[in-house]
Amino acid sequence: MLTASEKEQIEKEIRQVPVKKAACIEALKIVQGHRRWVSDEGIRDVADILEMSPEEVDSVATFYNLIFRQPVGRHVILLCDSISCYVMGYRQLHRRLADVLGITFGQTTPDGRFTLLPNPCLGTCDHAPALMVDDDLYRDLGPDDIDTILAKYT
User: Fold this and answer.
1) C-beta separation of 14 from 20 below 8 A
2) 117-108-35-154 Cα dihedral, nearest 10 degrees
3) What is residue 66's three-state secondary structure?
4) What is the pLDDT of residues 67-95, one digit of tens each?
5) Which of 42, 132, 134 is nearest to 80 (CA)?
6) 99 pLDDT band (50/70/90 cuts)?
7) What does 8-45 look like in DSSP terms, one character per residue?
8) How far is Cα 120 from Cα 140, in angstroms, rounded to an integer?
């Protein structure tokens, strides 16, 4: 069940769009902002508010790659795997992250600190390779940068 705060924030978003359905992504982001991911219950609650079916809301949530449908760690690492990043060193970054964290894509460290996910594009091809940790973008990376970046999120 959504909290009063979540409902209030979603209603505010609804007032800013011409039809309720147009607030779907923002509603999902609100739920995720409070819970760090969107459960099936969250999908149903958003669907009720927006007068959509749960399947419609789930299709939006699963299409939009920044809505997490499973629990994630305190910090989410998105490693860009676009062609530009791939050519410029993506594999070395992935190997370094896997070595340091002891996990690979789709996994969370045992301490719940980090979840590692691939991302199709971070929109910074001119500074590849790149990754994001939460809302922080890191560009022009090499494997030696990984330890310094991760240390910021202790």
Assistant:
1) yes
2) -100
3) coil
4) 999 999 999 999 999 999 999 999 999 99
5) 132
6) very high
7) HHHHHHHTTSSSGGGGHHHHHHHHHHHHSS--HHHHHH
8) 17
